[in-house]
Amino acid sequence: MGENGSSNGISRRKFLKGFGTGVVGSSMVLNSLGAATKEEKEQMREYLQNAEPLTLTVNRRKHRLMVEARTTLAEVLRNYLQLTGTKIVCNQGECGGCTVLLDGKAVYSCHLLALDAAGKSVTTIEGLLTGEDLHPLQDAFVEKDGLQCGFCTPGQIMAAKELLAKNPRPTRKEIQHGMAGNICRCAAYPKIIESVEYAAGMGNSQ
């Protein structure tokens, strides 16, 4: 079976999403795959046998999931919980595109096993919103044009969120140091730094 789906309409993403909505009984899950082939059901059965329970809080909401030990936090956020603002780019813990906050600390979610986040609080770019209103830090990136293609922007903002939470009035050098782990392939660094400076100047660190 392919990563994203099959000709019978059973997709890996849909299957995994079931674990993000409380479906954890193996017989229940397998019985729900009526359109799957025998081979696909066997693959799903093997997945269930290797899965382990995981409880974590994401954007102030508690989730109980079943995940394989090798599953990364980024994969759980995107494939199980449909929080696709977190980007998987290098998938090697080097570019920062997948940055989220774990108990308030910026981490590369592609380089962290989901089971290692058990019992902890995760904040993604979606978690900064209040209803449909942008967080002031997000507004700052819009105001100062701190993005070009926008692909790295969620990771940049989450890194800035931790930086300003620890140091509400950073110098430009401190901003450069604090944001150093996040790569922008469009090289929009001057505008990114300006956006963080603007947010700090407006007192928008929370």
Features:
206 residues, alpha+beta, Ubiquitin-like (UB roll), DNA polymerase, domain 1, 2 domains, five-stranded mixed β-sheet, 5 strands, elongated
Fold-level CATH name of the largest domain: Ubiquitin-like (UB roll)
What can be said about the biggest beta sheet?
Answer: 5 strands, mixed
CATH architecture of the largest domain: Roll
The number of helical segments is 8
Widest sheet, order of strands: 2-1-5-3-4
Q: Into how many domains do the coordinates divide?
A: 2
| CATH 4th-level superfamily of the largest domain | Beta-grasp domain
Outline type? elongated
Please specify the SSE layout and strand pairing.
Layout: H1 12-19, H2 26-31, H3 38-50, E1 51-58, E2 61-68, H4 73-80, E3 99-102, E4 105-108, E5 121-123, H5 136-143, H6 153-166, H7 172-178, H8 189-201
Parallel strand pairs: 1-5
Antiparallel strand pairs: 1-2, 3-4, 3-5
Helix pairs in contact: 5-8
Outline of the structure:
This protein has 206 residues and is an alpha+beta fold. Helix content is 37%, strand content 13%.
Give a structural overview.
- By secondary structure, this protein is α+β, with helices and mostly antiparallel strands.
- It has two domains: 12-128, Beta-grasp domain (Ubiquitin-like (UB roll), Roll); 136-201, DNA polymerase, domain 1.
- The protein contains eight helices and five strands.
- The protein has helices spanning 12-19, 26-31, 38-50, 73-80, 136-143, 153-166, 172-178, 189-201, and strands at residues 51-58, 61-68, 99-102, 105-108, 121-123.
- A five-stranded mixed sheet has the order 2-1-5-3-4, sandwiched between helices.
- Strand 1 (51-58) and strand 2 (61-68) form a beta hairpin.
- Helix 5 (136-143) crosses helix 8.
- The protein is elongated and about 60 Å long.
